[in-house]
Amino acid sequence: MSAPAVMPPIKRYTGVMDWLTTVDHKKIGLMYFWFVLIMGLVGGALAGMIRIQLATPGAVWDAVQAAQLAGEQLPFNLYSEDRHFFNQIVTMHASVMIFFVIIPGLIAFANYIVPLMIGARDMAFPKMNAFGFWLLIPSAILMMTSFWVQGGAAATGWTAYPPLSLKGAGINPGQDMWIMGVHLAGLSSILAAINFIVTITNMRAPGMGWMKMPLFVWATFFTSIIQLLATPVLAAAVTMVLMDRNFGTTFCDAMKGGDPVLYQHIFWTYSHPAVYIMVLPAFGAISHIIAAFSHKKTFGYLGMVVAIGSITALGFVVWAHHMFTVGMPTGLQAYFMYATLLIGVPTGIKVFSWIATMWGGTLRFTAPMLCGIGFVSLFTIGGFGGLILAMVPTDQSLHDTYFVVGHFHMVLVGGSVLALFGMTYYWWPKMTGRMLSETTSKWVFWLMFWGTMITFMTMHLTGAAGMARRVPVYYADFKILNHITTFGYALTALSSLILFVQLLLSYRRPKITEDDPWKINDVQQSFEWATSSPPPVYNFATVPPIPVADQH
Amino acid sequence: MTDHAPASTSAPAHGGHDDPMSHVPPGSLWPLLVMLPLCAIPFGVLSFTGTLKGSPLGPLTDPHVGLVMILGGTAFLLFALMGWCHQVIKEKAISHDLKAQQKDLQLYILLFLCAETTTFGAIFGYFYHRTIQDPAFGPPHGMHFGGPFAAYATFLLLSSSITCEIAHHALDHGKRSLSKMFFVITLLLGGAFLGMTGFEWGELFQKGFTPLALGENGSSAFAATFYTGTGFHALHVTIGLIMLFMVLMRLETGHFQGTRNFSVVAASWYWHFVDVVWVLLFITVYVVA
What we know:
The structure holds two protein chains of two kinds.
Chain A: H1 15-20, H2 25-54, H3 59-69, H4 84-117, H5 126-145, H6 173-202, H7 215-246, H8 260-277, H9 280-294, H10 301-315, H11 330-358, H12 367-390, H13 392-398, H14 402-432, H15 438-465, H16 479-506
Helix pairs in contact in A: 2-4, 2-5, 2-16, 4-5, 4-6, 4-14, 5-6, 6-7, 7-8, 7-9, 7-10, 9-11, 9-12, 9-14, 10-11, 11-12, 12-14, 12-15, 14-15, 15-16
Chain B: H1 30-48, H2 63-93, H3 98-133, H4 148-172, H5 176-206, H6 218-252, H7 262-288
Helix pairs in contact in B: 1-2, 3-6, 3-7, 4-5, 4-7, 5-6, 6-7
């Protein structure tokens, strides 16, 4: 193909303007990545504030109140306002971690890696891609500044259940700001999802049929379908609350003929599929990492694809297992219980396939591989907790206890976050052209692994013993368990800080020259190792050759 | 906001004798510029409604600043959106991967409509769930709407879908003046529909059936659903009319020669979608209720 006859010279920006105007999926991916790292520290700090309060049964407030009664001035009076502040921290920790860390974190890698994997030069809609990233910034600003408005930030938990989220006594614009922040983050999600689906459908290199697509691409594709179909439902749910709060409608206000339980149904119609938005890309990436460092092709490719697809489909029809205690008919409860347990089947297929991939392989225990194995172990443990919670009778006794908190943190931190660490270690050489120190990386992994294990396994026990979630004070019986949990938190925090500093300092390390620093391209099905590290702005000068692993 | 394809980002060129840099689209400041008012407007609304009084957010505590932010933000948003569209149209004029782009854009608008469908789905879901569960969920006593009036409105909107299709078809066959005429008819029919919705709302408001709380039972939630459903649909009709109007203006300036007519396809698909949603909404709020 020859260039057209008349081609005006393209204006190129440099320096800061280059980043502000970029439409390059790789630069946008890196911007997503650094945004996520910074928001991760913010979310982690919020978690730290929770853990400081919960470290001891009565903790900080009692000390503060005693001091205030005695007329002393405290240098650190963060909690002196009232216990309402604790609810704000809990809500914002969840919102930041979900909307600004895990979901965009996985999008960051999908943005960088998916076009490379399928041999495309960019996403289908590069400007839309940039817009999707920029939208996260007003969203984050809205949510974070809400701490300083009257009544503080949203304090209803990230689920914003009415009537708690409706306008009670006094104004709390923080809830409205939270809702608008969710709208903007949701729009960003939808735009990214459309972009990924179009890119993956139309822009694969010649010769890469659907069933030759790398698993990470499949995972991104299905994740995008969930985002596309579920996110508008969340927008509708929170808009109902917004209208009830400000325009006098009565969608959710039971006092005026509304139906608060129906809000929960609509909310979880989004938010249960959203759970899979937060883990499916991790599934895909872990398949690559485990195959690469076992030096084998992924075991059971077809099974893996079908499993991701069926998790996507089932994810849409199980939402009410979050609501077993709202008073649903028994028949419905039974349906949601069995449908939820059914998800264990495709998830089991994936876990067995990962183990079978390692079986008989030439294992190399690099940092990304450790994160991969850690992911499989912790996600499986977290998943078992999910099976326990899926049963109606056990759920009814464990609902709203720390068992639930332990369960979803085990799958999100032990699953998604550990996978994000693994993806960082695996693709950082490709993204920046710099290797990371294996020793430091392994320290980060082991701290994170044991930190997660200690923090969240203990939470399961605390919950089974009967401690309610979202409470700032508790009976002294839970004291030891909470000490241990806070200690575990310190390990995960240390691990994250080391990772942050390690990535910052990595820009001073020497550049690598290989396209394939891990020496794995012969077992990979994807194109990203067939271009330089980091790739040129156009990714590939010519059509990349079909990957070696596909040629037989 | 529908067609954002840049010049050539599709699969790499075969052969590899041309300069790969020529396929790299130029940077664009517009995405960032569209983001800025989206940050300013929410804060403007909060400030204008006086909810930020007493917070340490400096000038934002003054409602006048809020008003400036809303008005200025909206003006800037329109400016930035137009700048974005302008750059896209300019880039498309020199693009050499037109066919691939059209394919991308068609899938884009289809997926966008899927997302829209689920949004409406949430409203319908709310309506039917309440109708089945709660016998009190229905129009408040004396709230009369629909009837032949709504049927006429439906007839107008359905025929506008047909005229839109005729206009699109005429353009495909190069009959530009016929196409323009039918786009004008479509716009008029759509505008008439919007007017009728507004008229019906006005009548109900006059009788005191405002969207605000209407008593303490299911009928007030019904009113909320009724106004949200029809209002959200009217918003979509407005967006569709703006799209059709832009198509008409671009036809007037001589765009859409040959096969470069994605905006026409997008606008007409969107218009048909709005139509289908109306039929469902009509059945839901006028027939079922």
